TrEMBL record:
Residues 289-299 have a biased composition (Polar residues). Keywords: Nucleus, tRNA processing. It holds the Pfam family Gcd10p. It comes from the Eukaryota. This is tRNA (adenine(58)-N(1))-methyltransferase non-catalytic subunit TRM6.
């Protein structure tokens, strides 16, 4: 993440009301903040994040709208309320009011109590119409309006320091024309979308996203050791995660942030500066040569004679007749023909979705996944930038390509055209042919890699039936991998816990390998009616209905939730917030992928217990 505001990036502006407004900082454009005003985007370009700005316009004596950086000392004084704390003079009645105020030994009131304070709207002398007139008149940045409102309050002296600070902060949020520039990260984006369109992200909260990343063991896998499967082709591990995301890309962004592939690299700035410096140097050299040619002087005349090179080309040497200095130069050395600029070397082709480690593979039911929220991090799935880390590390494929690749047209190899025929085609047709070949190679590589499995974990956040999703995707996870499923409601996840419970696992193994019975001395009993037992079990219910999932693939299924409560942290006023946003609670199903051993697992040892002999004393 960058430390300063760059052009063509999304920035979150926190308004005095506490709400967020995400804007695209495009150079030479005006940004409208509603009732707070409008400013030019160039005023914040290149400035660091986390600064608070105050809008100053012509009412403040400015010819045009400007921004003032509010110092931290001013912000802290307003938040703590130290500037507006009323001065309390000790009186003789302090001892009589000691039951209501905190009084020191010398009789001075240390802290005032507001039990007898009557908070009534009639104590405000200004009416709403007068306040609206002040706002229309334009009283600077809002401080004058706040000062007049507080000066017209009849009971301002009765307020305690805490209540006065709260009153002042409430008025500041309403009338001050300020905003704070913040970088767009996953936590801020989650809070922003949750306030506007919570249903699009399945009512996910930041604490739930943290729990998902923690239980899925999401981390950077760029240096993770890669193992080869038993077939010698498939890859096991390597920091690869499989996911199903129906939250518009919010879960994908959270996982990519933990893996270190969400934000563009800052090395691009240095590269651009080097390229600009190279171009500027080339232009200076061209201008210098042109000026020397126009003045009729060469570098040798300025710096003294140089030794002639034996292989110098005489025809290309700039010469002039010393007897006739007014004679123009030759046409080959005319100033109107400057030397051509050095062409940049072509950038090497970087295939998309080509990373082998530290990758995210997302499954979707449509032609392309819905990752609209990744645009706030500089990544557009329709036209991705090659320099973005997600260009190589984010892979996608449809359910059709995973389950039935032979039915997917994009998986079919296009017709191969020989080089001789390609040479006779037009450039547009050749480009179309190569584009189709690259698209097919990308799709085939992703589909084959996904079908071979070996992923480090599985993260599911979808409205589809979780049982049908896990049935197809759990076998693709390596042994020891983590399975995490999120759902706003608890009922689908309770059903998953039942499908993978130890009771159902025991019944499944009994059905697969038959019941196992032992005598008290540890010897097996012979089961003569195996056929009748199997018939009775098949008549009891269908195997697909009793075991929709293989319960031996997951171990230790658990169901949990979390909700972080917000706190107000101020000196003498630290307490949890009394109200919070409602909505779905949100639950998470977690389990560990295991590799069941082939065949029956038999316990060894003596099953009989020896009875102790108790001798009666007497």
């Amino acid at each position: 993440m960058h430390s300063y505001i760059r052009p063509n990036t999304h920035v979150a502006l926190r308004l005095p009301s506490g709400l967020y407004k995400i804007v695209d900082i495009t150079p030479n454009t005006n940004i409208n903040l509603g009732k707070f005003g409008t400013f030019n985007s160039n005023l914040v370009l290149g400035r660091p994040y986390y600064l608070t700005y105050e809008l100053l316009d012509k009412d403040d004596g400015k010819s045009k709208t400007e921004l003032r950086v509010v110092p931290a000392s001013e912000l802290h004084a307003e938040a703590l309320g130290s500037e507006h704390a009323p001065a309390v003079e000790p009186t003789d009645e302090a001892e009589g009011n000691a039951g209501f105020d905190i009084v020191g030994e010398d009789g001075q009131v240390i802290m005032r109590n507001n039990r007898l304070t009557v908070d009534d709207a009639s104590r405000q002398a200004l009416s709403m119409a007068e306040i609206e007139e002040l706002k229309k008149a334009g009283a600077g940045s809002g401080k004058d309006i706040i000062a007049k409102i507080m000066a017209s309050h009849n009971a301002i002296d009765e307020k305690t320091s805490f209540s006065l600070a709260k009153y002042t902060l409430r008025k500041s949020r309403k009338y001050l024309r300020r905003f704070t520039a913040l970088p767009v990260d996953v936590g801020l984006l989650t809070e922003y979308v949750l306030e506007k369109e919570a249903y699009k992200i399945m009512e996910l909260r930041e604490d739930l996203l943290g729990l998902i990343c923690s239980w899925a063991n999401i981390h950077s896998g760029a240096t993770t050791r890669v193992l080869t499967g038993e077939d010698g082709v498939s890859q096991v591990g390597g920091g690869r995660w499989l996911m199903v995301d129906d939250t518009g890309g919010l879960v994908t962004a959270a996982l990519a942030e933990k893996m270190g592939i969400l934000y563009p690299e800052e090395e691009d700035d240095d590269t651009e500066e080097e390229e600009a410096t190279t171009e500027l140097t080339a232009l200076e050299e061209v201008g210098k040569n042109l000026s020397q040619q126009q003045n009729g002087t060469t570098e040798s005349e300025v710096h003294g004679p140089d030794t002639a090179m034996p292989d110098a080309d005489v025809d290309t040497t700039l010469t002039s007749d010393p007897s006739n200095p007014a004679e123009p130069l030759s046409a080959a050395a005319a100033p109107s023909d400057p030397p051509p600029r050095p062409r940049k070397p072509p950038r090497p082709h970087i295939p998309q979705m080509s990373a082998q480690t530290n990758t995210l593979t997302i499954l979707h039911p449509n032609n392309q996944p819905n990752l609209s929220y990744l645009k706030y991090f500089g990544y557009d799935y329709g036209a991705p930038a090659v320099s973005h880390p997600l260009y190589k590390h984010l892979k996608s494929l449809s359910w059709l390509s995973l389950l039935h690749p032979e039915d997917d047209p994009s998986y079919d190899e296009p017709e191969i055209i020989s080089e001789d025929v390609l040479a006779t085609l037009k450039s547009t047709k050749r480009g179309t042919y190569y584009k189709k070949r690259r698209r097919w190679e990308r799709v085939k590589s992703v589909v084959d890699e996904t079908r071979r499995g070996g992923f480090d974990g599985l993260v599911v956040a979808t409205a589809m039936d979780a049982a049908t999703v896990l049935k197809e995707l759990v076998p693709l996870v390596r042994g020891g991998g983590r399975i995490v499923v999120y759902n706003p409601n608890v009922e689908p996840l309770v059903q998953l816990c039942d499908y993978y419970s130890k009771e159902r696992r025991a019944a499944y193994m009994a059905r697969e390998f038959g019941p196992q019975q032992h005598e008290p001395n540890g010897k097996k009993l012979k089961v003569e009616d195996d056929a009748e037992t199997a018939d009775s079990m098949s008549e009891a219910g269908n195997e697909e209905d009793d075991f929709p999932l293989n319960p031996t693939l997951l171990l230790a299924p658990s169901l949990q939730t979390v909700r972080a409560r917000q706190w107000q942290v101020l000196p003498g006023r630290t307490h949890p917030m009394m109200t919070s946003k409602g909505g779905a609670e949100g639950y998470i199903f977690t389990a560990t992928r295991v590799l069941p051993i082939e065949g029956r697992v038999e316990a060894r040892g003596h099953f009989g217990k020896k009875k102790r002999k108790i001798e009666e004393s007497g």
